[in-house]
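Worked example (supplementary).
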Amino acid sequence: MVKYLLKRIGYIILSLFLIVTVTFILMKAAPGGPFASERALTPAIEAQMNEAYGFNDPIHEQYFTYLINAFTFDFGPSFKYVGQEVTEIIGRSFPYSLILGLEAIFIAISFGVLLGVLAAVQHNKFGDYMAMVIAVLGISVPSFIMAAVLQYIFAIYLQVLPIARFESFAHTILPAIALATTPLAFIARLMRSSMIDVLNRDYIKTAKSKGLSERVVTYKHALRNAILPVVSYLGPLVVTILTGSFVIEKIFGIPGLGSEFVVSVTNRDYTVIMGTTVFFSVLLLFSILIVDLLYGLIDPRIKVTSKEGDK
Amino acid sequence: MKWKSWSLLLTLLLALGVLLAACSGDEPAESEDDGTEEGNTEEPAESEDTEGTEEDTEASASGDGLAADQTFDINIRTEPPSLHPGLASDTTSGAVLYQIFEGLMRINQDGEVEEAMAESYDVSDDLLTYTFHIREDAVWSNGDPVTAGDFEYAWKWVLNPDNADTDYAYQLYVIKGAQAAKEEGASSDDIGVTAIDEKTLEVILEQPTPYFLDLTAFYTYYPVNQKVVEGATDWALNVTDTYVTNGPFLIESWAHKDQIVLKKNPEYWDADTVKLETINMYMIDDENTSLEMFNSGELDWAGDPTDALPLSAIPSLKADGSLNISPLAGVYYYAFNTEVEPFNNVNIRKAFALAINREGIVQSVTQREEIPAMALVPPSIWEESEEGYFKDNDVETAKEYLATGLEELGLEELPAISLSYNTSEAHAAIAQAVQDMWRQNLGVEVTLNNEEWNVYLDSMSAGNFQTGRMGWLADFNDAINFIELFQSVGGNNYTNWESEEYSNLIEQSRTETDPDARKEILREAEAIFMEDLPIAPIYFYTNAWLSKDFVKDLEVSPLGGVQFKWAYLAEE
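After joint prediction of all chains, the assembly is encoded as:
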């Protein structure tokens, strides 16, 4: 197990290295720089700024500085928000994204699984069709439209929830639902097909023939096996939710990290680009690792360590 | 191996994500700055608007009674990049700094410069030496007196080449020795600013500068409390004990990217004038959301200058009479690259400039009552500009110019022209309209070329364009803002156009001390420019905003600034 973990962490570091390198190359290749503005600086001032930020150093030196910064998680100050440390920006923005993300993941999984199971149990009946209509709608309606619709219904028309900002639990409801819609629908479809598949398996028939109640069969025997594809979807889900929060954060005026991630690219705010990229990558790589470990817990048939670890 | 392919896939995905993100996204707002000017906007209270709503009449009927709760809510869209007066260089930061700091002068709601930190000032006969006398009762928020030394320290700090982030240092270049100290390594002792004593500040200018007093109201000219700030590099990053200010409002809290709260400063020298007790500045980036928050009463103000109204909402807001519009000293134009064919030919440039129907654009595309521009300097600075130098949409003359131009270039017909603009709904709509006009009026194929903001600036600077959209907003209320732009190639002049005569006139204007004669010289320069037409001006900008009826005495200046010092909320 330890050996397996070490190996996985080794791969994570390798991936990070590649990500940092690719980001650096793309960042430098993109036209424009952090000091570009409609109001051009005088050449002397621009030269001073380039010097102060080390843009006059040879490119490989800049690259190594970046690499060291990335692995020590010290990115220096932002260019756009003069003097603010990147780590501080991440530290203050991430909690918003985290709360929003966790709420959205919770909604997506609980309602997605519920909807999927209902659809499978009611296979080819009214409930199935209803659930799948909802799922198709959820997948095809983009989150920003969903956000606008929710805002209109609940905040403007019914006036039961706030329009925007992020101050209390009530503020978090609409953005979390808007963010959760697409993954919710996806999970519902995933769950439905896997559940239908499992329900037709022989061991389910055995269980039923043993006289176990429908409820026990469905929830104890079928669900545990059918949920595996959903668990493997958790990794990508975390990514979708975290990076996809940009639009939602913008619409609801939430000071989260998703907008920081996207806006830094437009601003060519090199240090923030690097900081958020590394941060999101680490998050993503570890969430995939955790999902893989979870996999083994849920389904004993899968031994993550079986190949080399055991003996 | 399974894990390996996973990580590889992820890397690629992430790289793709970064690439995609680089292809879209927002453009930073057109840079604009500076304080209040020219109070020619109607006060919402006394609005003669006959279509005024019932609330309107009600509000004026109840007289000038102040509402019990003087809390004003406004959206400033984004996190202010810096609340250090010496480092700030954008409107959002400016909108906050104007309220919490104060310079030697302040521009009042009638657009006139009035004494602020300075109680009085003397100007020498050659207009080169200004002596400011600072108020005895001017104090910092920590109780220290505001001294002449604080100004000297702040200005010299900005002009210190070791402080690299001071983008706006050039705002101080009218002071003697300032540019030399910042750019050529001259000693800071030679900068023409001296604290003669505790309360007397002497400033020596490079040249007589008629707008110098306007400049001292600008945030780069604000003082900082030397005692507190000296040695503390990051005093302006957060609101702490070291964030010491001297303006009509105090900053109570700064939740980054979320909300700034300002409170009235009871120790301010003119505290009796200040009526607002609290100002909440929210940072909501989405225009539609902030408009909805305004409609639901969570905001008291929507739109310019700190926020923007969604393009699609303008027609209906105009129809129901709630939209306020005032001029903004700025010009939207298409720059011609005068080094590439066919725009190296003046007649071709004229043909293209004349073949645009500006009235049509402002009526049906932008719809914010912009003024069609047939001149360079906006009418809020020079009234003559409402007329302009040529006739709008003069297709007949344009065709004649085109024929002459083609003959001079030895061409049968024009090759396809590319028209560049940076990503934005509004720029795209205008470009499409112009594309259509040029195609119909001149029979020329026009391809549209849309680029992301940073990429766009890069191509413009590299001269990699034929015609490209640009805009310029004044820093202070003077024509030199616009004339100076095209003095030499480089900087913000993307046209590659230069004229010795034009440049000489500008230099001549700098030493001219008589205002009328100076204006004559600058008018002459503008005439030369408009004869050569390295740009096709499209329109002069306007401010467009909504405000609640009970918001009084809050003016939007033609310079895009807003001052809360005089504002108050009337009883509803």
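Two points are worth noting when inspecting this output. The CA atoms of residues 34 and 269 of chain A lie 5 Å apart. Residues 86-121 of chain A form the longest helix (36 residues).
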